[in-house]
Structure formats: C-alpha cells, structure tokens
Prior knowledge:
The structure holds 2 protein chains of 2 kinds.
Chain A: H1 2-17, H2 27-42, H3 46-66, H4 68-84, H5 86-122, E1 124-137, E2 146-149, E3 162-165, E4 168-176, E5 181-185, E6 192-198, E7 202-208, E8 213-219, E9 232-235, E10 247-251, E11 263-266, E12 275-285, H6 304-381, H7 396-403
Antiparallel strand pairs in A: 1-2, 1-12, 2-5, 3-4, 3-12, 4-5, 6-7, 6-9, 7-8, 8-11, 9-10, 10-11
Chain B: H1 9-15, H2 17-28, H3 44-54, H4 62-76, H5 82-100, H6 106-130, H7 138-167
Amino acid sequence: MAASRDDFIIAIRSAFLKKSTQQKFSLLTLLFISIFTILLSSFDFKVVRLIKTGINEIVYRSSFVVSIPENFIKNTFLEIVDYSTFFNDYLKNKDELNELKSSKISSEIIEYENKELKELINDYISSSDKILAKIIVDHNSPFLKSIIINKGSKDNIKIGTNIYDQSYLVGRVIEVNFKTSRVLLLSDLNSNIPVTIAPQNIQAIITGTGGNYGEIKYIKDTSIDKFTKESIIYSSGTGALFKSGTPIGKIKDTTNQSSDKFIIEFFSDFSQLKYVFAEVITKTEIENKSLDTSTQGETPSITPMSAKIKILEDELKIVEDINLKFKGENDHLKIKINDLNNQIFDFKNEILSQKEKIAQFNFDKKETEFLKMNLYYGHKCRRSFFNTKGFTIGTNDYKKCVLNKGRKN
Amino acid sequence: MVKLNSRNPLNKFYSWLPISLLIISVLNEFDFNYLQLDYFSFNFPFILVFFFTLKDFKYFDYFVVFLSGLINDTVVGLPLGISSLSYMLICIATSYFRNITIRPNQIKDWFYFLFIISLINSINYTILILFFSYTLILMDYLVNTFFTFLFYIIFVSIFKIYLKGVND
C-alpha cells in the first residue's frame, strides 16, 4: 500500500517538476504563471491593460494574416451558395427595394422629429458619424460570439460604441485597443438589449442564444398574444446602451406563444459580416444663451434656437422633396388616367359594333327559320285555286301562317 | 533520395510542424462556421497538445504551448490565462499518464483523453461562471467535448504517420 502511494507521489512529482532536455520551464512553473495571469486579468490594473492591448494588437493582426487561406475558402463557399440563389434573391430584393423607397421619406421625417425632441429633452446636440470598419477576425468561439474590427481608440471608438450592418444593429464594442476593437454581437449569450416591439409598442429585453438568433428574455407587457410575424423589434434606448430606434430583427415564430418563448430573427446575418459601421457620437452641449446675446455681434455658437432652425430647415427640405415627389406621381397618374379613358372609349366602340353584329345575326336567324318553315308549310298558307282560305305571298298573314306551321288562326 | 538530417531546413520544418500547427490553429480557430452546422464544434488544440505531450515529442515546447493558450484567449475573447491553464493541465495529465503507463494502449489513451478534456472543460466552465460572471450553455461544452473525443482517434492516426516519418 505504501509502495503504491510512493509510486503515485513519484509519478506526480515527476509530472510537475521533471524537465525534458528541450523544455525550458517545468510544468509547475507554467501552471503557476497561468493562474497568476488569470488573477491579473481579473483585476483592471493600468499596466495589465496596456500589456493586454499590446498583445491584442499583435495577435489580432497575426490572426488576420493566418486566417487569409481559411477566409478565402469560406468566401468561395459563400459565393457559390449566393450564386445558386441569385435570381430568387434578386426578385425578393427588387420587391423589398420598392417598399423601402416608399417608406424612406416618412422615416426621414420621423427621424428628424425624433432628433428634435431628443435634443429638447437632453439639452445637447448629438452628431453621429458612422465610420466604416473592416472585420479582421470573426472566428466565433462556440461559446462566445464576438468579432474584431480594425478601428480602435485612434478612431474615437469607445467601449459601448454601437456597431451596425447597414442600418441594422449588430452589437457594441466591449474592448478597445489602439487600432482594433472587440465587438460583442447581439447573438452572444451575454448580450442583453432593451427593445421595443412594434406595432404593439411593447417594451422587452432580448438576449442572444449563442446561435444565429435571439430570444425575448423579459417582457414588460403580459398581453403577448398580440404578436404577429410582422412584429418588428428595434432598440428602445433604455439604459443608454444602444441608440433608440435602430432596427434589430423580427419575431420569427409566433406559433409557440404558449411557452412564452419568442425567437428573434436578426435582420443582419452575423456569420457573413465583412464590413460594419461604427457610430462615433460627439455631444455638443447647448448653451443657455438668451436671444438678445446674438444681437451683440458675437459669432453665434450653437444655441437651442439655431439648432431648432436648422432642424426646421432640414424638415422644410424634406417637405419640398416630398412635394416634388408627389407632383411627379400626380403627373404620372394623370397620364395613366388619360390612357385608361382612351381604353374605355375603345372598349365602348367595340361593344357597340358587337351589339350590331348580334342584332344582324338574330335577324338572319329568324329569316332563315322562316324560309325553312316556308318550304314545309308554304303550300298550306298560299292562296290558290284549291286553297281559297290562304293568303297572298309576302303579306304579314302569310308569314304568320307559315310560322304557325300552316294553321290559319 | 535526399536524406533528411537535422540541419536540413526541410527536416527542421517537419520537426517543428506540430507546434506550428498549434499556433496556427489557435490564431485561426478552425470553426467551420460557414458550413452552418448547428452545435458542431471541436477543440483541435486539445487533441494536438494531448497527443504530442503524451508521446513526449521533443519539439513540442511547453512554453510555446503556454503562449498558444494566451493567443487563444486573445482571439476568442476569454480572460487571459484560461486556455494556458487548460493546456498546462493537459500537459501535467499526460506527463503523469506517461509515467504510470508501462504498456501504451490507444483505446486507453482515448478514454483517458475523454476524462481529461471533460475535467478541463468543467474547470473552464466553473472559472468563467464563478469568477468572471460569463453566461455559458453547458450543452455547448458537452457537444464540444464529445466531438473533440470523436475526432481524437482520427487525428491520432494522422499524427502517428507523421511521427513515423520523423523517427525514420
């Protein structure tokens, strides 16, 4: 028994401490360094943060270079898939584009109204600038869903910066380095987004599932039976984590409502992202200057009044654009109405000529019928030497008699 | 036929191939995401580290394995040191297993591998949940462990051919 315990201890000691000729460090040393690194990474020391940023910069770039062959294969695969569904996608996109064009203008108005109201509430003007960022690493771990973009603190990216794919929200920045940043995708389990569900106007929190979809984690309203497939989800802006009014996805499956589990289909396909937009927001405080200060000849800075005037000017521009669009549509409709009137006139003429043809046909039919009967019964109705009760050919009585099959009454 | 000696650059490359493969795999994260297979994932570095440390391959440096762990954490976005700890635990386990094994058997190695990766994934999961407040799905870990276990035997066959080539 003691010998067996000794063997075990010797084996363990050997495993921990014995170095082969090629090894520079014993496993025990490396094990302690690992534990020490974990402990350090859990504390937010400035030195550690700087070292980490340096490591991140080097590793992300190296990872990008090493991933080039795999990305090439991946892109080729995706292109082949795209080509196979190209035509169907084209038709679908065409329809969607038409719908979007028509709704764009009204969205712009709402956007400006929204901006105006927000600025009145917050007392500052937020001007956002979307910068294009390339995804350099998108190797999602099976457990964590994140991507690395090639913009960092150098480009004014901050922790919490919202990241978009076109106008759809895809995530937010959780780690910023000098020239790179890590974005936590909405599909990650650790991602919680306050949202509004339209058109029902229900507040909720959605979370990622680790897959390609999300689900509702918490819902404020209990009347969840109102959801339809068309229910759209956009960020509510609650908690100031995400900008409000940004589309996220739509409710995918409403058939499983009894289980209180709603699957959210994101508008953006996170597995196929190549470029994203990072929204860099700069806030300018609105100074509380009264109107009479502008008369003192100083160069006016941004005042609430000037901000409102600018917004109104923008709105005016949009209204003018709408008017032009409506005018164009009106002209187009007038031409269409004229065309339709001409068509109606043509159809009326056609109907008239067809009626005449029908009348002629009916007349000819009656005439043919009379001639046919005349062959059979004409001798019975014709006045002759033997038939003194008959009628003279061509008279109405004669015709009547023939049609009555020779009967004179 | 060109004889490969230790000074030959080709031979050097061939000898350092496993460790290079480890660095590339942690930098690249073979994920097969574009195949869009649900629940499919496996941990290639685990297989690589387990096999070559078990065979005590002299060009498989523990320190490089440790650095690979740090790279893996950076790429995946885990707290620094988690993967290094996992790899070091695998190295310790294989070293211990090598010491106590008199007659190596592939099937025994295979099931020992399952035991070790299950243990390490459990430690990983626990640390991430308890100390770093991550939200993780246990099922993903189980599936990952299962596929890593399955793929081990396939990769071992390939690595054995490689080792035979190196020894010759």
